[in-house]
Design a protein that fits this description.
Elements (H helix, E strand, L loop, with lengths): L2 H27 L3 H32 L15 H17 L1
Length: 97
């Protein structure tokens, strides 16, 4: 992942962290449950979008570019079958998120 991509993901996570703090305050103050649920749904969606972004970066930098200069330092040379297995694993993890 390059520096700009890391910054973008970090900004998203910081925003999510703030949303979580806001939800905790809502619970503490006894706010309306449906409002709390709406905020939880928003955080869940934001986390899913962030997970998709990380998965996309993994595909770009660790799977597709595994033999290139732009590859992540932990990416290893893989056969086509290993690459497909890795892609399956990424999708599986993403679907659990």
């Amino acid at each position: 992942m390059d520096t700009e991509e890391k910054k973008s993901i970090d900004r998203r996570l910081a925003r999510i962290e703030g949303q979580i703090r806001g939800i905790r305050r809502m619970v503490e103050k006894g706010e309306y449950c449906c409002d709390i649920l709406n905020q939880i749904a928003a955080v869940s969606s934001a986390l899913s979008q962030t997970a998709a972004s990380v998965a996309s970066q993994h595909v770009k930098h660790c799977i597709v570019s595994h033999d290139c200069e732009s590859a992540h330092s932990q990416a290893k040379t893989m056969t086509q079958d290993e690459l497909l297995d890795e892609l399956d694993e990424v999708f599986s993890r993403l679907m659990r998120a």
